[in-house]
Amino acid sequence: MDETPVWFDMAGNMTGKQLPRGEVIPKGVICWFQDNGWMTSDLMKNYIDFLFRIRMSENLSKESAMIVYDSFRGHLEESVKIKFKQHNFHLAIISAGLTSVCQPLDVSINKPFKDNLRKEWHEWMSRGGSGVTAAGNLKRARISDVCGWVKRSWDAVSDQIIFNSFKKCSISNLLDGSEDDMVYEEIDKLIAEYEKENLEEFDDDVEIVSN
């Protein structure tokens, strides 16, 4: 499954190489950084190694696995493909323009996760945030606070939502075809939304002339 895209801007003097004094990352959260805030091939290879260690701990390292990614170039560099192959991962690439129907995060997971995250931020703001500077400006959130928001927001996304999202994308469906209706339900929903948007645009463009 692809990375969940959530952005947080930190102060310009932050390097990510060392936590500020007093900051503690919550248990269950792993932080990696990139100077420009971008997913790179190096980060991808770190992530693949991380996934492989998990599979080793569960005695699954010799079993084949499939990872589904979009066509972002950081996923497709030769060094990344080699790393996938070394760890017995098969890479499936979603064609451009199809992530809304083929990528589980886009289909069902991102929205509840980001809704939860927005709620965490609103609650933090309602409690006064981190206070204000001498000039009266809001202080930025602590890294540990942000990590806590992310962890609680993700934990609040039910397992069933994730399971269903993979099935809607036809990734983990039963091979007997008994779960294929979930795929078509999502496609029908997207078609209905597209038709509604186009109908609204048509209505806006139509000029009614009375005799």
UniProtKB/TrEMBL annotation:
It comes from the Eukaryota. InterPro entries: CenT-Element_Derived, DDE_SF_endonuclease_dom. It comes from Rhizophagus clarus. Transmembrane segments: none annotated. GO terms for molecular function: DNA binding. This is DDE-1 domain-containing protein. GO terms for cellular component: nucleus. Pfam families: DDE_1. Residues 33-166 form the DDE-1 domain.
